[in-house]
Amino acid sequence: MIGIVALAGGAQGSPIVYVFVFSFPLIAFACVFIHEAGHAIAGLATGGRVTSFLVVPFEIRFRPTSFRLRGKAESGDIGGKVKLDYAGLPRSRRSIFIMVGGGPAANLLVGIPLLFWVAHSSASGLAQGIAASVSWASIAMGLGNLCPYRRGRHATDGLQLWLLARTRDLSESPASPKSAE
Question: Which positions ≥6 away from 181 have C-beta within 8 Å?
Fold first, then answer.
């Protein structure tokens, strides 16, 4: 995507095109990290405890006295996931809504101000180009995750929010308050 944008901008043959193309995996990783961090922060704010933080290919597992980082990529992992433990806490539609919406909100809260910075910055071409790529990718990820659809077992945040708003019984929500992902 970034390479196509750079080529369309008339930078054929320029080394900057290759920087954008090869930086795409790092930009995607950063956007997924921002998204999952949004879920984790929102979960912590609503009383949950983060037990696992996965951004493919890395996973951090939190235990009461330590944490462990390991490489992990299983089939079906499409980017990232946060597992929260709400054990012993009463079910709250509001806390689930906040936790699920935290991911897209984080993408938008990072992407939009970064885009304004890029527009008004006097930074160098490379720094400005990478910041613009991160901002557009983060905005796209945030808005894309708000679209309500299901892909296999995976329900987007938008679908989870939609179902949460439509159901009366919280046990029917795909965002389980006991172990939310």
Answer: 81, 82, 83, 175
Q: How far apart are the C-alpha atoms of 86 and 135, rounded to whole Å? A: 32
Report the 10 Å Cβ neighbour count for 128.
15
Q: Please report the pLDDT score of residue 172 as a whole number.
A: 55
Please tell me the pTM assigned to this model: 0.79
Nearest to 163 by CA among 151, 153, 150: 150
Q: pLDDT tens digits, residue range 49-83?
A: 888 888 888 878 887 666 666 666 555 556 888 88
Q: 112 in the Ramachandran plot: left (φ > 0), alpha (ψ -120 to 50) or beta?
A: alpha
For residue 60, what are the β-bridge partners?
53, 69
The CA distance from 128 to 115, in Å, is 10
pLDDT band (50, 70, 90) for residue 174: low
Locate tokens 């995507």: which residue?
A: 1
Token match 């008339």: residue?
10
Query: Do residues 84 and 40 make contact, with C-beta atoms less than 8 angstroms apart?
Result: yes
The per-residue pLDDT of the chain, averaged, comes to 79
Alpha carbon separation from 163 to 15, 65, 86 (Å, rounded): 47, 36, 20
